[in-house]
Every structure is written in structure tokens, then in C-alpha cells.
Design goal:
The protein is mainly alpha-helical. It has one domain. Helices cover 55% and strands 0% of the residues. The chain has 7 helices and no strands. α4 packs antiparallel against α6. The longest helix has 29 residues. The protein is globular, with a radius of gyration of 22 Å. The protein starts with a helix and ends in a 29-residue tail after the last helix.
Length: 152
């Protein structure tokens, strides 16, 4: 039986792997106004670029290839992952290492573009709500009221 800590790690690793397999992760093409790879400067930063060719992840790719073979196309990787627990684990390790690096680069890029705010409320990440900031009139439900919302 897994401990809670290892279960969380496993869930997080699977989420990161899903980012690469789906292409909806920390990729220039998906995240930012530029499609350029922040790690190597290539024109396109996609899941395929990250998995198959980005020189910034050559060491991680070499370790992955040693287990799954040299065909790192998404269909080939998925076939290997479902046929071998060792391949599955190798892909988890690759994804975790690479996506951690990509996310760190993206955080740096974002902080350079959007410097941190200075007020205490903003530093804590809390929104400050004032009664005057809420709309008045039609569509506002008074506190303590109930309403029925039918979803079809």
C-alpha cells in the first residue's frame, strides 16, 4: 500500500506526463505569445520538440531512450509505456525532470514580464473585496436568499 506522500508524488508525476502526452503543458506553443522554445531557441516549442529533439534535455532523453528505444514519437512511446512497467517508469522520470525544468524557466520568464506586486494583499495572493466592488441591481442575489438553478 502506498503512503499518502508517495501517492501524491505518483499523481503529480502522472499529471506531468499527461502534459507531454497531450501537448497541454509548459510549452511555448501552448502557454505564451511566442512559440519559441525558451530552452534552446528553436522556432517551435511543442511536446514533440521537447520529447524528441530539444538539446536542453539530451541527458534525460538519452536515459529514456536506453529503456524505450530510439523512436520517441508519441505513438511509439505510448505503445512502449503500456507494454512495459519499466518503460512507464522511465517516461515518468523523463517527464518529471524535463517539465520541472521547463516550469522553472517559465516562472522566470513570467516574473521578468510581470514583476511581483508590492502590497501586502497582493503578496499573499488574496483578492480584496469591498461591498462597493459588487454590482447592484438586477441579477444580484441578496445574502441569505436561495435560488433554483436548473441545468439541462
Amino acid at each position: 500500500m502506498h503512503s499518502l506522500h508517495s501517492r501524491r508524488d505518483e499523481v503529480a508525476a502522472r499529471a506531468v506526463m499527461t502534459q507531454i502526452l497531450s501537448g497541454h503543458g509548459c510549452f511555448g506553443r501552448y502557454l505564451s505569445n511566442t512559440e519559441e522554445c525558451q530552452a534552446c531557441g528553436a522556432d517551435q516549442d511543442t511536446a514533440e520538440h521537447t520529447l524528441e529533439e530539444c538539446p536542453a534535455y539530451a541527458d534525460e532523453r538519452r536515459d529514456l531512450s536506453a529503456v524505450v528505444g530510439t523512436d520517441l514519437s508519441l505513438p511509439a512511446i505510448v505503445r512502449r509505456m503500456v507494454s512495459s512497467e519499466r518503460s512507464w517508469e522511465a517516461m515518468l522520470v523523463f517527464c518529471d525532470a524535463v517539465m520541472s525544468q521547463k516550469e522553472a524557466v517559465e516562472r522566470e520568464r513570467e516574473s521578468a514580464v510581470n514583476p511581483p506586486q508590492t502590497s501586502q494583499t497582493q503578496k499573499k495572493g488574496r483578492a480584496q473585496f469591498r461591498p462597493s466592488s459588487f454590482p447592484t441591481g438586477a441579477g444580484v442575489i441578496p445574502v441569505g436568499s436561495s435560488f433554483n438553478c436548473d441545468i439541462m
